[in-house]
TrEMBL record:
Organism name: Cucurbita moschata
Domain spans labelled Oxidoreductase molybdopterin-binding: 46-229
Highest taxon above the source species: Eukaryota
Residues annotated as transmembrane: none
Matches recorded under InterPro entries: Ig_E-set (IPR014756), MoCF_OxRdtse_dimer (IPR005066), Mopterin_OxRdtase_euk (IPR008335), OxRdtase_Mopterin-bd_dom (IPR000572), OxRdtase_Mopterin-bd_sf (IPR036374)
Pathway linked to the protein: Energy metabolism; sulfur metabolism; Sulfur metabolism
Tagged with keyword Metal-binding: yes
Swiss-Prot/TrEMBL keywords: Metal-binding, Molybdenum, Oxidoreductase
One GO MF term: heme binding
Gene Ontology biological-process annotations: sulfur compound metabolic process
Protein's name according to its UniProt entry: Sulfite oxidase
Domain Moybdenum cofactor oxidoreductase dimerisation: 253-380
CDD domains membership: eukary_SO_Moco
Length: 383
């Protein structure tokens, strides 16, 4: 594989793997704005970043179990109504490094910043599917298509040199309320190469792995995608499963992200002076569920106080209200009094009353995904 044409990246990114390029911003950079600047947005690639230079000739083919397959050019996609959806994309491997401290896991190490919140601009997949005769809210095509597979133009070793791919159910893809996008813009600018130029899928509320970049084709298929990342990766196993007894067929591909929260204003071990400390960070859940509460403890989890939540500054956040961005993270902040060494803990509750699990041991899994255990930092207080 050829890494000679990789794009330039911002020097602040912490590189977790060079080829393929995987990097995240420092945690403190994440909370400096509600919308994450593209430069600071984590980059998660499985192969070299493809170079599409002839945008006039670039097209996406729609094929599979439909009556009339079609070739769509950028102008066809731009002709459809354009939507701007603010959505947080989070890698299932976010916080993997912390999980591997319990027991070793396989995968790229990530601290707490394998996510970002962006304004994605593009056409709704539900509108695109209508162009090939699939009505809104379809569960099946007449030819028996029940899943929508996205295939990239990149090449990765997990697919033995083939393209990255993933699928979602047709009922999800054809639901306009699910806001699944074929995005050509990120934060008001054309997508950059790292994030999928010229066109990517964005599936709000679902682990990042399903939001296929550098889209090449969309196939309507009967069963879910048989791709590596659907069948042999990104599945959640119980702690008892190891590399000797694993049976991949026993679990379903992970879709929704569970409730998550992280403090970004403090490092894992932080030195402070006694007195007031401001604790701030992000909280986000999957499936469009809002954040009902963020609880912070200054004594390792015995007593809790509630943090203030916000999306846009100055606008009070109310989970699941029409004024909130349902697919986007919520930032939180609270000021605490700390006089001696202690452990600060954060946990969020989503609008379905799901709570983060206390201990990472309970959710440990061999691939190190979905580490949503209570986030803890150690404060060392000195003068
Ligand atoms: N799409 C393609 N074609 N190739 C990839 O390697 N990585 C996936 C997803 N889509 C990937 C892809 C994973 S695991 C994640 S978390 C997100 O893209 C990362 O998107 P980003 O790099 O724009 O942050
Ligand atoms: Mo990911």
């Amino acid at each position: 594989s050829d890494y000679s044409q990789e794009p330039l990246r911002h020097p602040c990114l912490r590189i977790n793997a060079k080829e393929p390029f995987n990097a995240e911003p420092p945690r403190s950079a994440l909370i400096s704005s509600y919308v994450t600047p593209v430069d600071f947005f984590y980059k998660r690639n499985h192969g070299p970043v493809p170079l599409v230079d002839d945008i006039e000739r670039y097209s996406v083919s729609l094929n599979g179990l439909i009556e009339n397959p079609k070739e769509l050019f950028m102008k066809d996609i731009r002709m459809l109504p354009k939507y701007n959806v603010t959505a947080t994309l989070q890698c299932a491997g976010n916080r993997r490094t912390a999980m591997s401290k319990t027991r070793t896991v396989k995968g790229v190490g990530w601290d707490v910043s394998a996510l970002g919140n962006a304004v994605w601009g593009g056409a709704k997949l539900a509108d695109v599917l209508e162009l090939v005769g699939i009505p809104k809210l379809s569960y099946s095509t007449q030819k028996g298509g029940k899943h929508v597979e996205f295939v990239s133009i990149d090449r990765c070793k997990e697919e033995k040199g083939g393209p990255y791919k993933a699928s979602i159910p047709l009922s999800h893809a054809s639901n306009p309320e699910a806001d699944v996008l074929l995005a050509y813009e990120m934060n008001g600018e054309p997508l950059n190469r790292d994030h999928g130029y010229p066109l990517r899928v964005v599936i709000p509320g679902v682990i990042g792995a399903r939001s296929v970049k550098w889209l090449d084709s969309i196939s309507i298929i009967a069963e879910e995608s048989q791709g590596f990342f659907m069948q042999k990766d990104y599945k959640m196993f119980p702690p008892s499963v190891n590399w000797d007894n694993i049976d991949w067929t026993t679990r379903r591909p992970q879709m929704d992200f569970p409730v998550q929260s992280v403090m970004c204003s403090l490092e894992d071990v932080d030195h402070i002076r006694p007195g007031k400390v401001t604790v701030s960070g992000y909280a986000v859940s999957g499936g469009g569920r809002g954040i009902e509460r963020v609880d912070i403890s200054v004594d390792g989890g015995k007593n809790w106080i509630e943090a203030t939540r916000y999306q846009k500054t100055g606008v009070p956040y109310v989970a699941d209200s029409p004024s909130s961005d349902k697919w986007a993270w919520v930032l939180f902040e609270v000021t605490l009094d700390v006089e001696q060494n202690t452990e600060i803990v954060a946990k969020a509750v989503d609008s379905a009353a799901n709570v983060q699990p206390e201990r990472v041991e309970e959710i440990w899994n061999l691939r190190g995904i979905l580490n949503t255990s209570w986030h803890r930092v150690q404060l060392r207080v000195g003068r």
